[in-house]
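Subject: Thioesterase

B.,
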Amino acid sequence: MSDISRLKSRTRADYRYILEYRTRWSDNDMYDHMNNSIYNFLYDSVINTYLMENCGLHPPSSPQYGMVVHSHNDYFASISFPACAELALRVNRIGNSSVAYEIALFEKGHDAVRSVGEFVQVFVDRETGRPNAKGMNPELRRGLENLLVNREASKL
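Prediction pasted inline below.
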């Protein structure tokens, strides 16, 4: 099965965390579907919501924070206002200071995945802007490991 076919076959059960998002009129573009820039906004939001709720992240003051170093998205079907989106999150790999997330967007009430994206973050120290030689802090790592789907692929 190709990578795209594998992504297109994703279901909500493939993910460990789901966040609901009510689309807004302003999310639509002139083609009457959600603008591609909104997907990145939503992916960033589901990741940071999870980090704040489950990993002890406090964006203004945490000693470490995640910098996005890579992102991409594969679109399969559109979604538009007034639909309710369900953002599904999992972790595919964890390294010493980095994590690769996979995010799927579903439309509430529909089974087929609408898009699947990837974000890679490197956690850096607030004071230096560089990764810590000891890696990410233990509370952060434990929270991310709860979303990890393949323990063998846990090194970036």
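DSSP finds three helices and five strands in the chain.

T.
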